[in-house]
Amino acid sequence: MVLLFPFALYSQQNLSADELFSEARNAAFEQKDYTAAIKLTKEALEKAPDYTDISVFLGRLYTWTNDLSSARAVFDGLEKKEVRDEDFFIAYASLEYWNDQNDKAIEILNKGLEYHPQSEALLLLKGKVDFNNSNYADAEKAVNTLIRINPKNTEARALSIKINDFTSKNAMGIAYNFSHFDKQFDDDWHIVGLSYKRVTPIGSVILKGNYANKFASSGTQFELEAYPKLSKMFYLYVGAGYSNDVGIFPKFRSGVSLNANLPKSYEAEVGYRQLYFSNNIWMYTASVGKYYKNFWFNLRTYITPDNDNISQSYTGTVRYYTTGATDYFAFQIGTGISPESYLSNLLENEIYKLKTFKIGGEYNFAVQKTNLFSISAMYYNTEYLPKTKGNQYDFSLGYTKKF
């Protein structure tokens, strides 16, 4: 071994800068040995001090090991050399973004985009930094530019949905739903809903008022919902409602969910929904979603335990986005009744324990960004009595004005 050591040292000393760079990357990515990777990278730079890719990699290594002063020294040196490589701007801006220096990150990204205006990586990072810095208009502009360049960019699509909720301080909406039953009920149902949404620094708040005509009787309901942000990853859904017209609506309803924006464009939710008519009905919900190119896939379940059995509802949804965050086609299929549906008043009679199949579609589109329209249709085949089924046809229209 003593005899071999000088030969090994001699061999390493005679490696080219490219060979040392390759070994450094292997040490970092395969062996997770950042100390060795830094040493090899420095040796490579001694042989090729103007090799920009190696310098950028050294800056990244210092960033990953939380040696921020050394990382900034590397990137500052490259900036003084007026380096224009795309990867340099990405690495430098990422350092500042990960360490909550958003203004500095934006300065670097803006300069990088002057040289690389079509860079998907720079535009995506700018969207993230602007969104984190509450510069929603700039974030939307960056992400929309990216989507025009590559409509199938999954991360951009997921980010555009998040940004969309914050691009206007206010939104007012109206929705109408019509339901026709071939057997279960003699009268058609009509439901009209009004909503006002206000975006606040901690999340959005929505006030709703609903009017329904069911069973040839009328009723009203008032609801309040909020989506407070907890962190970059987590936010809550909190909702409550009241109606004095029990049977048309539940007297009380409430719900809380914890939502997570997960890596690789996944999202998840877990929570509960409660309805009170003459007794409480507790439902526990969970969902998982995934953005993939122009698509959004979601699977949601509602579980309702009682003394006899556990009732279950499952719904699968697929959206195909055509352009922006509010322009999409949707397809839905599932079983059971959810507490958010227009059929929620039927849960009082435990119809949800019988078999229900549903399938439908929806089309949403925007006109001049601030006028949002929705059209949907849903078909239900419901076992409303044991071994007795009927059909239901739902049609809905909606309009929202953002300002």
Automatic annotation (TrEMBL):
Gene3D superfamilies given in the database record? Tetratricopeptide repeat domain
**What are the alphabetically sorted keywords of the record?**
Hydrolase, Protease
Pfam families found in the cross-reference section: TPR_19, YaiO
Question: Could you tell me which residue ranges the YaiO beta-barrel domain spans?
Answer: 169-340
Q: Which residues form the signal peptide?
A: none
Q: Please list the GO terms describing molecular function.
A: peptidase activity
In Swiss-Prot or TrEMBL terms, this protein is called Beta-barrel assembly-enhancing protease
Give the gene that encodes this protein: bepA_1
